[in-house]
TrEMBL record:
This is Mob1/phocein. It comes from Chytriomyces confervae. Zn(2+) binds at C118, C125, H196, H201. Coiled coil: none annotated. Keywords: Metal-binding, Zinc.
Amino acid sequence: MVINRNKKGTRLELKTVDTDSDDKLDDSLAEKLIRRAESSLAVQTVIQHGIVFCHSLFAVMLKHIQWGASIVLAVDNSDIEAIVRLPEGVDPAVWQCEHLRQLCLQLNQLVALLIPECLPSNEDCREMKAGEWQYLCAAHVSPQPCSAIDYIIHTLDGATALLNSSKFFPSRATIPMASHKHFSSIARRLYRIFAHSWFHHREIFDDFENETCLYKRFLFLSTIEFQLIPEKLITIPQVFDMGV
Ligand SMILES: [Zn+2]
Ligand SMILES: [Zn+2]
Protein backbone atom coordinates (compact mmCIF):
# COMPACT_ATOMS: atom_id res chain seq x y z
CA MET A 1 0.00 0.00 0.00
CA VAL A 2 1.29 3.41 -0.89
CA ILE A 3 -0.23 6.62 0.36
CA ASN A 4 -0.77 9.09 -2.43
CA ARG A 5 -1.47 12.75 -2.06
CA ASN A 6 -4.62 14.34 -3.37
CA LYS A 7 -4.94 16.40 -6.50
CA LYS A 8 -4.94 20.16 -6.17
CA GLY A 9 -8.21 21.57 -4.91
CA THR A 10 -9.37 18.42 -3.15
CA ARG A 11 -9.66 18.06 0.61
CA LEU A 12 -6.54 17.27 2.58
CA GLU A 13 -6.87 13.56 3.22
CA LEU A 14 -4.98 10.43 2.29
CA LYS A 15 -6.00 7.68 -0.07
CA THR A 16 -4.48 4.34 -0.98
CA VAL A 17 -3.23 3.44 -4.43
CA ASP A 18 -1.29 0.57 -5.96
CA THR A 19 2.27 -0.28 -4.91
CA ASP A 20 3.85 0.81 -8.17
CA SER A 21 3.32 4.46 -7.44
CA ASP A 22 6.52 6.44 -7.12
CA ASP A 23 5.04 9.26 -5.12
CA LYS A 24 7.40 11.19 -2.87
CA LEU A 25 6.87 13.64 -0.06
CA ASP A 26 8.93 16.63 -1.07
CA ASP A 27 9.71 19.97 0.48
CA SER A 28 7.35 21.79 -1.82
CA LEU A 29 4.47 19.59 -0.70
CA ALA A 30 5.09 20.57 2.92
CA GLU A 31 5.15 24.21 1.94
CA LYS A 32 2.00 23.88 -0.18
CA LEU A 33 0.15 22.15 2.63
CA ILE A 34 1.07 24.85 5.08
CA ARG A 35 0.03 27.60 2.67
CA ARG A 36 -3.23 25.85 1.88
CA ALA A 37 -4.32 24.79 5.36
CA GLU A 38 -6.16 27.53 7.15
CA SER A 39 -6.32 26.05 10.63
CA SER A 40 -3.64 26.36 13.31
CA LEU A 41 -3.21 22.58 13.05
CA ALA A 42 -1.50 22.97 9.67
CA VAL A 43 1.97 22.12 10.99
CA GLN A 44 0.74 19.01 12.79
CA THR A 45 -1.01 17.91 9.58
CA VAL A 46 2.20 18.24 7.56
CA ILE A 47 4.20 16.21 10.08
CA GLN A 48 1.61 13.44 10.24
CA HIS A 49 1.38 13.34 6.45
CA GLY A 50 5.14 12.80 6.31
CA ILE A 51 5.02 10.05 8.92
CA VAL A 52 2.26 8.18 7.07
CA PHE A 53 4.46 8.35 4.00
CA CYS A 54 7.30 6.78 6.00
CA HIS A 55 5.00 3.95 7.15
CA SER A 56 3.90 3.35 3.58
CA LEU A 57 7.52 2.83 2.52
CA PHE A 58 7.86 0.17 5.20
CA ALA A 59 4.73 -1.60 3.94
CA VAL A 60 6.14 -1.68 0.41
CA MET A 61 9.45 -3.06 1.65
CA LEU A 62 7.67 -5.82 3.59
CA LYS A 63 5.86 -6.81 0.43
CA HIS A 64 9.16 -7.02 -1.48
CA ILE A 65 10.54 -9.28 1.25
CA GLN A 66 7.48 -11.53 0.99
CA TRP A 67 8.23 -11.82 -2.72
CA GLY A 68 11.72 -13.06 -1.85
CA ALA A 69 13.50 -10.01 -3.17
CA SER A 70 16.70 -8.98 -1.43
CA ILE A 71 16.44 -5.40 -0.30
CA VAL A 72 17.91 -3.32 2.47
CA LEU A 73 15.34 -2.64 5.16
CA ALA A 74 15.97 1.04 5.68
CA VAL A 75 14.14 4.19 4.90
CA ASP A 76 16.19 6.56 2.83
CA ASN A 77 17.72 9.46 4.74
CA SER A 78 16.05 11.88 2.38
CA ASP A 79 12.66 10.63 3.61
CA ILE A 80 13.59 11.29 7.24
CA GLU A 81 14.86 14.68 6.16
CA ALA A 82 11.63 15.44 4.30
CA ILE A 83 9.64 14.77 7.47
CA VAL A 84 11.85 16.68 9.89
CA ARG A 85 13.45 19.55 7.94
CA LEU A 86 11.91 22.89 8.82
CA PRO A 87 9.82 24.00 5.84
CA GLU A 88 10.23 27.53 4.61
CA GLY A 89 7.88 29.98 6.30
CA VAL A 90 7.22 27.85 9.39
CA ASP A 91 8.04 29.12 12.87
CA PRO A 92 10.93 26.93 14.16
CA ALA A 93 9.46 26.82 17.68
CA VAL A 94 6.06 25.66 16.41
CA TRP A 95 7.79 23.02 14.28
CA GLN A 96 9.81 21.68 17.25
CA CYS A 97 6.75 21.69 19.48
CA GLU A 98 4.61 19.73 17.03
CA HIS A 99 7.36 17.20 16.35
CA LEU A 100 7.85 16.66 20.09
CA ARG A 101 4.09 16.22 20.55
CA GLN A 102 4.06 13.66 17.75
CA LEU A 103 7.09 11.86 19.21
CA CYS A 104 5.35 11.59 22.59
CA LEU A 105 2.29 10.10 20.93
CA GLN A 106 4.33 7.46 19.13
CA LEU A 107 6.59 6.78 22.12
CA ASN A 108 3.47 5.54 23.89
CA GLN A 109 3.42 2.69 21.38
CA LEU A 110 7.02 1.81 22.26
CA VAL A 111 6.13 1.91 25.97
CA ALA A 112 3.25 -0.50 25.37
CA LEU A 113 5.79 -2.94 23.88
CA LEU A 114 8.21 -2.43 26.80
CA ILE A 115 5.71 -2.94 29.64
CA PRO A 116 5.68 -6.78 29.53
CA GLU A 117 9.51 -6.92 29.32
CA CYS A 118 10.79 -3.97 31.33
CA LEU A 119 10.14 -5.43 34.77
CA PRO A 120 11.45 -3.96 38.03
CA SER A 121 12.63 -7.49 38.90
CA ASN A 122 15.18 -7.32 36.03
CA GLU A 123 18.60 -6.22 37.20
CA ASP A 124 18.88 -3.66 34.38
CA CYS A 125 15.35 -2.32 34.87
CA ARG A 126 15.24 -1.99 38.66
CA GLU A 127 16.30 1.63 38.24
CA MET A 128 16.43 3.82 35.15
CA LYS A 129 19.64 2.88 33.41
CA ALA A 130 20.98 3.29 29.90
CA GLY A 131 24.27 1.45 29.61
CA GLU A 132 26.55 2.90 32.28
CA TRP A 133 24.30 5.88 33.01
CA GLN A 134 21.69 5.97 35.73
CA TYR A 135 18.96 8.58 36.11
CA LEU A 136 16.69 9.85 38.87
CA CYS A 137 13.08 10.58 37.95
CA ALA A 138 12.37 14.31 37.92
CA ALA A 139 8.59 13.91 37.88
CA HIS A 140 8.45 14.18 41.68
CA VAL A 141 8.90 17.01 44.17
CA SER A 142 12.33 15.57 44.91
CA PRO A 143 13.93 13.30 42.27
CA GLN A 144 13.23 9.60 42.88
CA PRO A 145 15.01 6.37 41.87
CA CYS A 146 11.93 5.08 40.01
CA SER A 147 12.13 1.74 38.22
CA ALA A 148 12.90 2.03 34.50
CA ILE A 149 9.32 1.49 33.36
CA ASP A 150 7.97 3.93 35.97
CA TYR A 151 10.60 6.49 34.96
CA ILE A 152 9.62 6.04 31.31
CA ILE A 153 5.88 6.42 31.99
CA HIS A 154 6.35 9.36 34.39
CA THR A 155 8.67 11.11 31.93
CA LEU A 156 6.37 10.61 28.96
CA ASP A 157 3.33 11.74 30.93
CA GLY A 158 5.23 14.80 32.18
CA ALA A 159 6.43 15.76 28.68
CA THR A 160 2.95 15.31 27.21
CA ALA A 161 1.37 17.39 29.98
CA LEU A 162 3.95 20.14 29.54
CA LEU A 163 3.52 20.30 25.75
CA ASN A 164 -0.25 20.48 26.17
CA SER A 165 -0.10 23.01 29.00
CA SER A 166 -2.14 26.11 28.22
CA LYS A 167 0.15 28.03 30.55
CA PHE A 168 3.39 27.33 28.65
CA PHE A 169 1.95 26.61 25.18
CA PRO A 170 -1.30 28.59 24.97
CA SER A 171 -1.45 28.54 21.14
CA ARG A 172 -0.41 26.10 18.42
CA ALA A 173 0.37 29.00 16.08
CA THR A 174 2.98 30.81 18.20
CA ILE A 175 5.12 29.76 21.15
CA PRO A 176 6.06 32.26 23.91
CA MET A 177 9.82 32.86 23.98
CA ALA A 178 9.98 31.85 27.66
CA SER A 179 8.72 28.37 26.72
CA HIS A 180 11.41 27.62 24.12
CA LYS A 181 13.75 26.36 26.84
CA HIS A 182 11.46 23.41 27.52
CA PHE A 183 12.19 21.78 24.14
CA SER A 184 15.72 20.88 25.12
CA SER A 185 14.82 19.50 28.55
CA ILE A 186 11.98 17.44 27.05
CA ALA A 187 14.22 16.08 24.29
CA ARG A 188 16.99 15.13 26.76
CA ARG A 189 14.51 13.19 28.91
CA LEU A 190 12.80 11.49 25.96
CA TYR A 191 16.22 10.46 24.68
CA ARG A 192 16.71 8.33 27.79
CA ILE A 193 13.64 6.26 26.86
CA PHE A 194 15.26 5.41 23.53
CA ALA A 195 18.59 4.78 25.28
CA HIS A 196 17.15 2.37 27.88
CA SER A 197 15.36 0.51 25.09
CA TRP A 198 18.50 0.32 22.94
CA PHE A 199 20.82 -0.86 25.73
CA HIS A 200 18.45 -3.20 27.57
CA HIS A 201 15.60 -4.18 25.20
CA ARG A 202 17.39 -4.24 21.87
CA GLU A 203 15.01 -6.53 20.02
CA ILE A 204 12.01 -4.36 20.89
CA PHE A 205 13.95 -1.22 19.92
CA ASP A 206 15.02 -2.67 16.55
CA ASP A 207 11.55 -3.98 15.63
CA PHE A 208 9.91 -0.70 16.56
CA GLU A 209 12.55 1.39 14.80
CA ASN A 210 12.33 -0.66 11.61
CA GLU A 211 8.64 0.05 11.48
CA THR A 212 8.47 3.67 12.59
CA CYS A 213 11.93 5.31 12.11
CA LEU A 214 11.06 7.12 15.33
CA TYR A 215 14.60 7.25 16.73
CA LYS A 216 16.02 8.41 13.42
CA ARG A 217 13.46 11.19 13.25
CA PHE A 218 14.10 12.11 16.88
CA LEU A 219 17.86 12.18 16.36
CA PHE A 220 17.57 14.26 13.20
CA LEU A 221 15.29 16.75 14.96
CA SER A 222 17.35 16.95 18.16
CA THR A 223 20.91 16.98 16.85
CA ILE A 224 20.87 17.99 13.18
CA GLU A 225 17.93 20.27 12.50
CA PHE A 226 17.98 21.78 15.99
CA GLN A 227 20.57 21.50 18.76
CA LEU A 228 18.30 20.21 21.51
CA ILE A 229 20.71 17.56 22.82
CA PRO A 230 24.49 18.08 23.15
CA GLU A 231 26.52 15.47 21.33
CA LYS A 232 28.19 14.32 24.56
CA LEU A 233 24.80 13.11 25.87
CA ILE A 234 24.22 10.82 22.90
CA THR A 235 25.06 7.42 24.37
CA ILE A 236 23.57 5.15 21.72
CA PRO A 237 26.38 4.33 19.27
CA GLN A 238 25.99 6.02 15.92
CA VAL A 239 24.30 3.05 14.30
CA PHE A 240 22.65 5.16 11.64
CA ASP A 241 24.39 7.06 8.93
CA MET A 242 22.30 10.20 8.91
CA GLY A 243 23.92 11.17 5.63
CA VAL A 244 24.33 14.86 6.45
ZN1 LIG B 1 13.82 -2.10 31.06
ZN1 LIG C 1 9.01 8.70 38.76
